[in-house]
Amino acid sequence: MNKKLIYLLAVSLAFGSSDMKLASSHTTSIETLVSLSKDSDEDVRMAVAANPNTPVEVLIELCKDKEEYVVVSAIVNKKTPLATVVSFVNHKENDVRSAIARNPNLPKESMEILANDSDDGVREALASNVNAGDTILTLLSNDKEADVVKAVVTNPASPSDILERFVNNEDYQMSLAANISSSPAILDKLSDSKYSIGIRMTVAKNSNTALKTMEKMLDNNENDTMFIKPALARNPNATADMLAKLSTFDDFSFVRGATRVGVASNKNTPPEVLDKLGTDENYIVRAIVYKNTKTPASRLAVLEKDDDFKKFHSIDQNDDIFRGVLGVNYASNTRDTFFLLGRPDIARALNIIHVRP
């Protein structure tokens, strides 16, 4: 669902009337929803349009509403018939067409219309559609607007031959590093030390990164290895041997324990490594060990008697508490992003602290 729409719904629900709350509730009767769909308050109608229990015939009518976000809300409701959605492909409002462009079930003909839309936001929405298809994605990869192209590069359904065209373009390298459709060859190139630490950390976490690339990054002795190792520890394809090595890594003070937390949370970490990490001096590492399903029962029994056991259940590996306990320093929260030593790319890629987008 459109982020703006989610925001509007949330605000309306928080400060709205009792009718607003009824319109949003999944337990409201069909009769009441039908009645509320004709309410004079557009926020109420928008909530009805978003409600998964709203009857199809009501959703079809709400798609004709005079208010833009009532229409958007109805368009993105999964119960709205595809035929109805498609019929609004030439709607006058850009946000309505963008909502349609994100629909993964759109027929080819509708996608072709939207691919040539005059609004770049609509084309960007289509470029992020995982079912857009190679022909549409190829067309949009040549778009004049950078945001449209970036959406193509970010799309996990984009074929490698499209993605490879952007390897040498620094504007899209971070998106390539994060895309699980990027080929192992692309990711191996982006793992080179000439690229930014944020890009390399993202490569280190990518599930499509080849094992030989991961091993090369693990054995790298450059100063910024302290950032790479926590990222490698979170890769779902990290081998038992790699995780065993990473479990002994002594992180520098401001990312203290980050690598070991990653190892403790990884589903591939061997029981014997988890058992040892269960004695870690950092209680967050011990807490994550306790939550790993591969941790030996004998270690679980010991951890249940841990002095900090009461804290274990409230800890998540991406919890805000990591900033303090792991010693992660941040300078400001400009634009709602916590800056790690002035480097938001590192803060995001570390994935050991909660970073709002």
Question: What is the structure about, briefly put?
Answer:
The protein has 357 residues and is mainly alpha-helical.
List keywords for this structure.
disordered C terminus, 357 residues, flat, 54% helix, mainly alpha, single chain
Explained architecture:
The chain has helices spanning 3-15, 18-24, 30-36, 42-50, 56-62, 68-75, 82-86, 94-101, 108-115, 120-127, 134-140, 146-154, 160-163, 173-178, 184-190, 197-205, 211-218, 225-233, 240-246, 258-265, 271-277, 283-291, 297-303, 309-312, 322-325, 344-350. The chain is mainly α and 357 residues long. Helix 6 packs parallel to helix 8 and helix 20 runs parallel beside helix 22.
Number of strands: 0
Mean pLDDT: 84
Q: Ends: how far apart? A: 16 Å
Low-confidence stretches: 319-342, 351-357
For the sheet with most strands, the description reads: none
Assembly state: single chain
The number of helical segments is: 26
- Quote the beta fraction: under 5%
SSE string: HHHHHHHHHHHHHHHHHHHHHHHHHH
* Radius of gyration, taken over Cα atoms and rounded to an integer in Å: 24 Å
The structure class reads mainly alpha
| Global shape | flat
Helix content: 40-55%
